[in-house]
Amino acid sequence: MSEGCIICRKEAGDGHLHRLEVWRDDLWRLTVSLDAEVPGFAYLEPLRHIPTIADLDGPEAASFGAVMAKASQALKEATEAGIVYVYIFGDGVPHLHVHLAPHKDGDALNSQMIRGEIVSEKMPDGFERFYSPEFPALPETDQRRVADAVRGRLAAS
Questions:
Q1: Do 18 and 62 form a contact (C-beta atoms < 8 A)?
Q2: Per-residue pLDDT tens for 73-88?
Q3: Structural domain boundaries of the chain?
Q4: pLDDT for 35-72, tens place per residue?
Q5: According to the model, what pLDDT value does residue 127 have?
Q6: Can you list the alpha helix ranges (DSSP code H) found in the chain?
Q7: Domain spanning 11-103: which superfamily?
């Protein structure tokens, strides 16, 4: 537990955050927002204080995928959503919390990841590419340099 972390306070912090715990195991807990734009908007967070996704380690890292799938499936079924969006923001709360947002057509959510006007381009293979003219793609050489750096770090670990 980290002193001053509202998420580490668990149930004691839930009232302040206006949410309700719906599930817990030895490592994780899931809460549902009581103040959201869509039904079932939830937060999955480790019980142990882990600041960011990059700090995820130990048994939480080993169980993360399975727990996220279990929570997402329950939310999808309970809300009859077509999909559950997953977001992780660095929004000023220094404790990893994954936003799980059940989405149905016509609700308050969208899949926009880039600011500005979004343009849809149908590709020859049927894939749909989305981009913003205000924020063009970075040069491929820059992206390849980053890809090579990531590959090298993962190969070394």
A1: no
A2: 999 999 999 999 999 9
A3: 11-103, 119-156
A4: 899 999 999 999 999 999 999 999 999 999 999 999 99
A5: 74
A6: 11-17, 58-79, 140-156
A7: HIT-like (3.30.428.10)
Which amino acid is located at 148 in the chain?
D
Please say whether the beta carbons of 47 and 61 come within 8 A: no
CA distance 91 to 117: 23
φ and ψ of 21, to 5 deg: -70, 130
Backbone phi and psi for residue 51, each to the nearest 5 degrees, phi listed first: -65, -45
Would you state the structure tokens that stand for residue 36, as one six-digit string?
Answer: 């959201």
Using the Cα atoms of residue 111, residue 115, residue 117 and residue 118 in order, give the sign of their dihedral: negative
Give dist(CA 49, CA 141) in Å, integer. Answer: 38
Amino acid at 23: W
